[in-house]
Amino acid sequence: MTQLGPLERTDPAVRVSADAVVVIPGIMGSRLVEAATGRVLWGLGRAAQLAARWRHREGLAALAVTPQERDGRVGRVVPAGLLDTAEFAPVLRGIEPYGRLVRRLREVLVHPDALLEFGYDWRLSVEYNAEQLAAELRAHLAAWRAHPARPPGVEPRVVLVAHSMGGLVATAMCARHPDLAAEVRATVTLGTPFLGAVKAAALLNSGHGTPLEHRNLLALARTLPGVHDLLPAYRCVVTADEDVVELGAAEAAALGADPELFERTRRTRALLDPSVLPNHRAVVGAGQPTEQALRIEAGVVRTYHHGHLRHPDDELVRDAIGRLVPVDHTGDGTVFRYSATPHDGVDEICLGQTHGALAKSSTALDVVCGVVTRLPARSALGGELPEDTVGLRLPDLVTAGEPFTVAVDGVRDAGAASCLVEDAHVDGAPVARPLLARGDRPDVLVASVVLDEPGLYRVAVSGGADPVTELVLVQE
Known about the structure:
Blueprint: E1 20-24, E2 30-34, E3 40-42, H1 47-55, H2 67-70, E4 77-82, E5 87-89, E6 93-95, H3 99-107, E7 115-117, H4 126-145, E8 158-163, H5 165-176, H6 178-181, E9 184-190, H7 198-203, H8 212-221, H9 225-228, E10 237-238, E11 244-245, H10 249-255, H11 259-269, E12 280-285, E13 293-297, E14 300-304, E15 307-308, E16 326-327, E17 347-351, H12 362-372, E18 391-393, E19 397-399, E20 404-409, E21 418-423, E22 430-432, E23 437-438, E24 444-449, E25 455-462, E26 468-475
Parallel strand pairs: 1-7, 1-8, 8-9, 9-12, 10-13, 12-17, 19-26
Antiparallel strand pairs: 2-3, 2-4, 5-6, 10-11, 13-14, 15-16, 18-20, 20-24, 21-22, 21-25, 23-24, 25-26
């Protein structure tokens, strides 16, 4: 650890913490490099290479987990810190960098060395990465407690800040290492899929007529233990006789999961009781169209943007002729709302935001920094979705020079919403300001957008507390 002098805080209005803080990113949220050559495999930051990589399977070959890596002989690929540039994967859409979160946290710590940015090999299992986190956290906490900038008379503890799959890694670490869990003062999870995500099942199943980019992602995903650890673990599979069951071995095999990796995942689930997370506050994304259930027909997965209504005893509600009753719980576009809220005792903060943006939106960062600095929970934030929440829908892949549609749900006042398109690799550089107009439904606004240059773009719609954002890849 770099030994720097104490950082003096002269502004009494700035509330800072002496604790050690750990940022744990989500799947695809760490840069990966090839150990032997230093070649960057993930986190390229060059828009031209993003589309080309997904069109050619050989462009993804180095990211695939090998039989040797599955057996524990790792080190061919190594993490190189948190993602510092926007990335893209079909189906999962864009992956936002963590720079804004890191900068905000540094502002509320007594010294930058109190912060650990835990990059990890997200291709590998949650269980493996939990052990890596434990080792790095032990070393980090010991170094920070011995640091000259640590305030005298203060015994620092730990605050875990975890996005997406990072929350599963944190949960497994606390379960396997109760002595480390005892050092944790508080935990904040941002869109963590404690019950998995239907979208992970879609990653493992191409269906018919899907684009080449999606099929190449499928071939990669089927080798990754990390993707299998995200498969849904709640009743979401609609059967031929109209029951709803959990994803079992037979269903997993039918959709294309690796049988051995699926069995490993089921064993890991025993470690993932989120109640082990100390003083847990869950930031949950909602209001966005989110896959919540699925049906497997002839080996093809069909997903639904709704779940099914249940009685208080968890029995399914049926209508007068015995049909299931759909209910849309929404989510963050990747994780449905109640998967990110693990149990009744957790302090839930619900935001109208997309999955990737949860780790960078102003309101979410206010929550994180409030936990770090021991501010009381803000009464304005809670489990209810804000009334001004808007939902954002757009394709993940589009072609340069061809129009595509941006749709915004839940807008009461058309004049209160606006749309901005910016270059995701040049932060804040506006490219277009599409005009939103009423669509076929009174609560939907639409805009036709044409982007002439290939690249990765961020679409932002203002109409609520924070702009709701999503990434789109424009290819030639």
